Amino acid sequence: MPFAAALSTVEPTLRAVEEVCTQTRTRLPGEVDLAILFFSTHHTRAAEDLVRVVRERLAPRCLLGCIAESVIGNDREIEQSPALSLWACRWARPVTMEPFHLVMERTADGPSLFGWPDELSGADGADTAVLLLGDPFTFPIDLFLRRVNEDAPGVRVLGGMASGVRAPGQCRLLFQDAVKDQGAAGVLLRGPIGLRSIVSQ
């Protein structure tokens, strides 16, 4: 699976995103299947510009991203300074991707998650995985994992929760052509994805 990773620590958002896109395009010419962007709070106000430039420059089939207190790119970890990290890949064999955005709503039966991908129910864990980035204030990760274990046992869930935010409404999740401030942005991957899950300490 060809992939590329790029990091920028310049403060102006447009310069930073152009820099990581240029590095990525040099290292990964051709089509991009999946692009994931992590950015420090310094770039929060320009989150829409991040989406626009990555879509224009790389045209990924799926784009996800989130705000982060610590941003890691290649062999560096940046804290309390401007940082923008982009990871992109192209699968060697066809992989089906279904992007989805989950939001929690209160119902008569209690809290429920809306926006589930149809293909998740009954999916085969051998060739299916979920990549998910969530808002810690509005996304009940325990409810999500319980539902996945019930409907699609064996399907791997990878990703994590956004950080660097202090209250509901401050989170920024990149999802395809949009910026969301609640819930979780994810993608359902099916096929010869070749993923290996590693638990961070």
Can you offer a commentary on this structure?
This protein has 3 helices and 13 strands, in the order βαβαβββββββαββββ. It is α+β, with helices and mostly antiparallel strands and 201 residues long. Helix 1 (13-27) runs parallel beside helix 2 (47-58). The two termini are 26 Å apart.
Task: Provide a brief overview of the structure.
The chain has 201 residues and is an alpha+beta fold.
Beta strand count: 13
Chain-averaged pLDDT: 93
Largest sheet: 6 strands, mixed
Share in helix:
10-25%
Low-pLDDT regions: none
Task: State the strand order across the main sheet.
Answer: 1-6-2-3-11-12
- Overall SS class: alpha+beta
Q: Measure the end-to-end span.
A: 26 Å
The secondary-structure element order is: EHEHEEEEEEEHEEEE
Q: Which band does the percent of strand residues land in?
A: 35-45%
Cα radius of gyration in angstroms: 16 Å
Which term fits the overall shape? globular
In DSSP terms (H or I, runs of 4 or more residues), the helix count works out at 3
What are the defining features of this structure?
201 residues; alpha+beta; six-stranded mixed β-sheet; five-stranded mixed β-sheet; globular
